[in-house]
Design brief:
Elements: H1 6-14, E1 21-25, E2 27-31, E3 34-38, H2 41-49, E4 54-58, H3 67-72, E5 76-79, H4 104-120, E6 124-127, H5 129-137, E7 142-143, E8 171-175, H6 180-184, E9 190-193, E10 200-201, E11 209-214, E12 219-223, E13 231-234, H7 247-269
Parallel strand pairs: 1-4, 1-5, 5-6, 6-13
Antiparallel strand pairs: 2-3, 7-10, 8-9, 8-11, 11-12, 12-13
Length: about 280
């Protein structure tokens, strides 16, 4: 199935077919004394072109949100990567090393939103920072600097490479036999993925199932068998233009989109469509 163009998507909209609405939480930064709520364009474009959903950016407003009302208006939630680390007090970890970047406004938005999404059966897909946020929100812990652990490889972005090469495959991951990720990978036992992270899962939340690990034992993917709907987190970046062409990337984003469409139809059938709210 080819990736749709923007024109294809808007042709669907012009036929009055509802596109599922996927919320994408933003990160909050201050530049030149100006606050900015932002995310990378690749995330939005992958949700739009491959999941075939409409992306809506969610500002990092924390507890200013009525999370229940927000969830009622969404058909899916996509958690992006990002530069900040989850603040360690959220998982009982020691204080961060000096100079570590944090985004308390994003933490205050995403962590409760993950729990609400799970409770409501909202399709949920997280990448890189997103898998870490899912784990912390559900009770797990993190390694803030996984490359400093004995026996672990360098997982951080190689900043000596041109930006166009930073998302190239770097190491294999090994699938959990019979797991959800292996199903999406058409039964493959391993695949190559990229690596651009310093923080990673330490102890997985009790409700999560490990779906894949790297060759040095870092947890690379999790699912939630008891979830009411699609729930997947991966540590690598499948959304970048090159990796988005990989067969597993296509399968993950399409499966997420299918789950969002099913929720969109169900909400319309029950009169809970966001446009009538």
């Amino acid at each position: 199935m080819p990736v749709r163009t923007v024109g294809d998507i808007f042709n669907v909209m012009n036929r009055n077919e509802s596109l599922p609405i996927v919320g994408i939480p933003t990160s909050y930064t201050v530049e030149d004394e100006r606050g900015m709520h932002r995310t990378g364009g690749n995330y939005i474009e992958a949700v739009f072109s491959t999941s075939e959903c409409m992306a809506v950016l969610l500002p990092a407003f924390g507890d200013q949100y009525d999370f229940d009302a927000l969830i009622d208006r969404l058909d899916g939630l996509f958690l992006t990567g990002g530069a900040p680390n989850v603040e360690p007090h959220h998982y009982g970890g020691p204080p961060s090393r000096k100079g570590t970047m944090h985004d308390p406004r994003r933490d205050a938005t995403v962590l409760p939103l993950v729990r609400k999404a799970i409770d409501a059966g909202l399709p949920l897909f997280g990448v890189c920072l997103g898998i870490q946020e899912i784990n912390v929100a559900l009770g797990g812990t993190l390694h803030p600097l996984v490359h400093e652990l004995p026996g672990k490889n360098e997982h951080r972005m190689d900043r000596t490479l041109p930006s166009s090469e930073r998302h190239a495959p770097r190491h294999p991951i090994f699938m959990t036999e019979g797991g959800f990720l292996q199903e999406l990978a058409n039964g493959a036992s391993e695949v190559m993925v990229n690596s651009l992270h310093a923080q990673a899962i330490d102890r997985p939340a009790d409700v999560l199932q490990v779906e894949g690990i790297s060759d040095d034992g870092v947890i690379e993917a999790v699912s939630m068998p008891s979830a009411k709907n699609f729930m997947l987190g991966v540590q690598w970046h499948p959304e970048a233009p090159g990796p988005l062409k990989w067969s597993l990337s296509q399968a993950m984003f399409r499966a997420f989109g299918d789950a969002c469409r099913a929720r969109c139809r169900a909400r319309a059938e029950t009169g809970a469509d966001y446009r009538a709210a």
